[in-house]
Specification:
Shape: globular
Mean pLDDT: 90
Radius of gyration: 22 Å
Structural class: alpha/beta
Number of strands: 13
Largest sheet: 7 strands, mixed
Low-confidence stretches: 228-234
Strand content: 15-25%
Helix content: 25-40%
Length: about 400
């Protein structure tokens, strides 16, 4: 896994579950990634703690990324963490990480993140041996070939991956290219008591867990039973993956089909050049997530999330391939919601449905969405006005068994 800045509990749970662990530090640094920031709670509000870095090039690697404003940032971040959790029951346990940040001398992002992870590992009594990919003399440049080469060098028979990598591993046909078995780490964390919060906020940095539970309690939490523990494989080979330019003709065909168009806000037949401009613009927006739903490696539908920062709420939309078998809509929606809460780490999903789209209304309710209102005569289709039904689903309301 890539070295993450003060990662959440699931990162350490995967570390604890593995026999060998490799920091994938020799890959390109993604923009606004978990390598440079993470979330804590300030009162009952989510606050981002960000590492300032030097931007050398668009394709710079994590291990080549140097910190900027080092001493000033360390002092400021240490103060923010100390003040944010000053009244929490295990604030003193958190001092171990605060001091490591304030007094550290790491000069690169990878060194900082790995140092903090390993300091936490000591306190959590996680003894999994770790290595750096940058020190393994790897010949492969392709992302999946690199994983396979690492596995072969270590003599691995199973690759335990975070669920967030499922879409690209499927797109790259990982299981067809190696004899290494692929399994996914469960990422459905149970709630823990968060001081000052009536409602649990999931996927916080490890600092939030330690401040609330202490190191001993955090170790028990990470090693305990998590929701849906038996589900380590993708359900029935259903997954969502990022949409690519190769999907454009198929998505355009779906979107322009008469079974889909009547339920959209814009109901004209979209020409290819307009479709391409839409895709290129969305690709440049880090808060837009365009996804393809696949069942048994066959594209069956489209999903989108537009994330609103810093609330971590998102608006979503979706549709199935017109020829998809009955029940595909529910599978698509379930898989997408699970992905949104476990991988995008959203706090809330918001949906708007034209009132005459009764099947979508029923689907939202079946998934646990709450109807939050009706916008009367909100949409004009050129001939008539239609009501729009507003739905919302919070992360702690999501029940994957729905």
């Amino acid at each position: 896994m890539q070295p993450t800045f003060l990662p959440w509990g699931g990162y350490f749970r995967l570390l604890r579950s593995a026999d060998k662990f490799v920091f994938l530090d020799n890959v390109q640094l993604a923009r606004q990634s978990w390598q440079t920031r993470n979330r804590i709670l300030v009162g009952d509000r989510i606050h981002w703690v960000t590492v300032p870095i030097q931007h050398a090039s668009l394709d710079q690697r994590i291990d080549e990324t140097r910190l900027s404003d080092g001493a000033r940032w360390r002092k400021k971040t240490s103060r923010v963490l100390a003040q944010s959790y000053a009244r929490h029951p295990y604030k003193s346990d958190l001092d171990h990480l605060i001091v490591a940040i304030e007094n550290g001398s790491e000069e690169t992002l990878s060194e900082l993140n790995m140092a903090l992870v390993m300091k936490a590992m000591v306190k959590l009594k996680i003894f999994t041996p770790v290595q750096r990919a940058s020190q393994m003399a790897l010949a492969s440049e392709d992302r999946t070939d690199k994983l396979i080469e690492i596995g072969h060098k270590l003599g691995c028979t199973i690759y335990l991956s975070p669920l967030g990598s499922a879409e690209y591993l499927a797109a790259d046909r990982f299981v067809e290219r190696t004899s290494i078995k692929l399994e996914y780490a469960n990422e459905g964390p149970p709630p823990y008591k968060q001081r000052g919060n009536a409602e649990f906020v999931s996927h916080m940095s490890i600092v939030d867990i330690v401040a609330n539970l202490g190191w001993e309690g955090t170790a028990e939490y990470i090693g305990g039973e998590w929701h849906g523990e038996s589900n380590l494989q993708l359900q029935d080979n259903n997954l969502v993956r990022p949409m690519t330019a190769m999907d454009l003709p198929l998505v355009l065909q779906w979107r322009n089909h008469w079974d889909v168009r009547p339920f959209m806000y814009t109901q004209h037949e979209i020409p290819p050049d307009e479709h391409l401009r839409w895709f290129e613009k969305a690709e440049q927006d880090p808060n837009r997530h365009l996804l393809i739903f696949e069942k048994n490696q066959t594209p069956m539908g489209y999903v989108s999330f537009r994330v609103i920062r810093p609330s971590e709420n998102a608006h979503w939309g979706f549709y199935c391939a017109p020829e998809a078998p009955k029940g595909t809509g529910r599978l698509l929606a379930w898989t997408a919601v699970q992905y949104a809460f476990s991988q995008l780490r959203l706090r809330k999903i918001c949906g708007q449905v034209l009132a005459y789209n009764e099947s979508s209304v029923r689907l939202h309710l079946a998934l646990g969405f709450k109807q939050e209102g009706v916008l009367r005569h909100q949409h004009f289709d050129g001939q008539n006005y239609h009501d729009v039904v507003c739905f919302g689903l919070l992360a702690d309301e999501w029940r994957p068994e729905n």
